């Protein structure tokens, strides 16, 4: 699905890019040395690099240019989906975007497979939050706070995704 998706056609479908997003990927700032610095509107490159590294073999290397390219693309993608979700909230006169808005935005942008995966993850997350709240409110007995390991939950989620594909 993701290979066939053409972001350029979204304008034809009536989806416009928010003005702040158009600036995010093209503007640069000048640092103290007079050189072009990174724009503060981009996702942190260390986080992008870490995500990229997680899916590669341990001996694989990632060039700086590759990280920067994915950084720009990921920032654009997040901003695009968030802009669509924000538009839904504006129409419904709400101020807070929630997970359901993101799922709806992905579906309306033609990213149905991603929306389905996000919906399943969101459901698992909410169930774990309810369990943690129940245990923290006295159902656990020890009185200590329960913490949910999101990375472990995500790896379980990824494992289920791979099984669904087979």
- Shape call: globular
Instruction: State the helicity in percent bands.
Output: 55-70%
Give the tally of β-strands. Answer: 2
**Element order: H for helix, E for strand:** HEEHHHHH
Structural class: mainly alpha
Low-pLDDT regions? 1-5, 16-36
Describe the oligomeric state of these chains in a short phrase: single chain
Task: Compute the average pLDDT.
Answer: 76
Query: How would a crystallographer describe the biggest sheet?
Result: 2 strands, antiparallel
Identify the strand order in the major beta sheet.
1-2
Radius of gyration: 19 Å
Q: Hey, roughly how much beta strand do the residues contain?
A: under 5%
The rounded distance between the terminal residues' Cα atoms is 16 Å
Question: Topology of this structure?
Answer:
Blueprint: H1 19-24, E1 29-30, E2 36-37, H2 45-54, H3 64-91, H4 99-108, H5 112-139, H6 150-165
Helix pairs in contact: 2-3, 3-4, 4-5, 5-6
Features:
166 residues, 2 strands, disordered N terminus, two-stranded antiparallel ribbon, 6 helices, mainly alpha
């Amino acid at each position: 699905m993701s290979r066939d998706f053409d972001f350029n056609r979204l304008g034809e479908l009536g989806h416009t890019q928010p003005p702040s997003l158009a600036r995010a990927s093209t503007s640069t700032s000048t640092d103290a040395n007079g050189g072009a610095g990174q724009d503060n509107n981009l996702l942190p490159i260390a986080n992008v690099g870490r995500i990229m590294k997680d899916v590669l073999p341990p001996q694989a290397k990632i060039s700086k240019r590759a990280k920067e390219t994915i950084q720009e693309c990921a920032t654009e993608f997040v901003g695009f989906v968030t802009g669509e979700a924000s538009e839904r909230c504006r129409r419904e006169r709400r101020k807070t975007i929630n997970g359901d808005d993101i799922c709806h935005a992905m579906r309306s942008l033609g990213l149905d497979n991603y929306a389905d995966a996000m919906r399943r993850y969101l459901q698992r997350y909410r169930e774990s939050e309810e369990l943690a709240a129940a245990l923290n409110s006295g159902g656990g007995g020890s009185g200590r706070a329960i913490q949910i390991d999101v990375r472990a939950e995500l790896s379980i989620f990824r494992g289920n995704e791979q099984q669904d594909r087979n």
